[in-house]
Amino acid sequence: MLVDYKADEFASSFLSYFPKNVIVHPGDTVHFKQTWTGEPHSVTMGVVIDKMFKYSPIFTKYENEDDARAHGVPEATLSEIHKTQAQIPGMTDVSGSELYQPGARPCFIAKLADVPNYEDANGDPNPSPSANCPRGDAEQPAFTGRQALYNSGYIPWQGNGANEFVVKIAPDATPGTYKYFCNYHWIDMSGSVKIVGKSTPIPSNNAVNHEALRQIRADVRKPLAAVRQAKRAYAQRPTKPLAGADTGEPFSVGYVSANEFFPSKGTVHVGEPVTWSFKGMAHTVSFHVPAYFPVLTVDKKGDVQFDKRARKAVRWHVPEPAYNHDNGEPIPRAVDVGSWDGTGGFHSSGLLNKGETFTLRFTKPGTYPYACAIHPLMIGQVVVTA
To answer: Which residues on adjacent β-strands are paired with residue 361?
Structure first.
């Protein structure tokens, strides 16, 4: 099983598993192999996850509980949905800016009654600060299909167990179909493991690999066509290539993100403003990026942390976002950091979101490579002439 993928022709993140569904026997082993694209992932399973997917058609159909209630969804069902949601640990807080350790760390809880309430009891939208994996449940057992929560936590991209999560199916596993998902990207990144009896034929490893490749090719087709079109469009522009460069996805389908700068190379004069327009998911514009850059780290205690250099502005002043009083949405920022001579080491815009811009002027001629600090394959270059 592949977790994420990267295309050959463009920098990308495939927020999916390949193949999405597998069939196994009791006693088999499922290997989840991660392609590191800068996006954190997990494999999160268990009874509470199966319950979540059972109820997902309801909470995706209606805007909120009141809307569901108005359309006749019984109170008992709404209560069960709320209880189920409270037992599922996400990897981050509501904003996505801070990692939530109970979801980011491995946890394997056998009994439903032992699963903590991860929802803050005081009505705070962020998860509970006091919820923890029960003592002794951090060690991974074989998967039976009966565990209440079976969470890999963040799959690290370096160190022990890098880019891999191995699930041994118990010899006494209960036959059935079990859903799993990424608790960072939530239910849109999901799949299933179907356990069948020993006498039931299942696809060979070769057939599983062919199905993964078929799904990858299907998912990449439209984004690849859009990337090629965007590159052609920028190549034909009569204006200077970097006068209004775009960054982000020109097209996303099937949760494939094209993490590209368009154009990836351009020429400007000294003192001429260069503006990057953010079109897709959050990215940075970063210069002199260190060769070794741990976007996420796992410390000696097992806590998972974002490296602040990957997400925060470095050596440039970038104002914090303001929010719309009517809807609570952030007001897009037009960031202008003035002029820079290319010295002083690592400089970064920090994370900027769709609809925001970042403007910079270079005071010296030269070639300036840059990258997105959280998507390591997303790179570009500015050539500055006198």
So the answer is: 273, 339
